[in-house]
Amino acid sequence: MRRETFSPLQAQLVAQAFARHGVDYMFLGKSGAILLGYPGTTQDVAVFPRNDIENGKRIVAALLDLGFIVDDELESDILRGKNFVQIKSGPFDVDLVFAPDGIESYDEAKARIDLSSGFPVANIADIIESKRAAGRPRDALELPQLRAFQKDYEQRN
Fold it and tell me: How far is CA 66 from CA 78, 88, 93, 132, 141, in A?
């Protein structure tokens, strides 16, 4: 089944559900960059949540609220903070990235969080570093455009 492309409406739905349940998180990856104005596309909402069991319980409740099916395995992966949890059992795809490549800690990233879009988004430098550190060929192709966007973005803000 073909999934729809990420839209800010999906981010808004996630943000609202996460706020209702008190989830500590930030948007990350290409979806985070798009929320900052990057002119790209992606297939999923990438989220970097705080990795602790209480936050995991809040994430599960928020996902259920959004209409995701959360089976025992998925719940266990979220509660234990598995490094990467890909969720395709709902109205759109969500990736929970508890340990993004290239980012030392959640607290350090949160100290640099970008709220200019109205969403909690990882700093564009952190997004780029995470993509670079992941070392995936598709990310390597995108890095020059992300770096150019970063220069323009930092000049505007």
Answer: 16, 12, 12, 31, 33
What are the chain's domains?
A: 8-150 (3.30.460.40)
Residue 135 corresponds to which amino acid? G
Supply the pLDDT for residue 2.
43
Q: What is the pTM of this model?
A: 0.94
Cα angle, residue 33 at apex, residues 31 and 37 outer, rounded to 5°: 110
**pLDDT tens, 85-114?**
999 999 999 999 999 999 999 999 999 999
User: Please, which pLDDT band fits residue 134 given cuts at 50, 70 and 90?
Assistant: very high
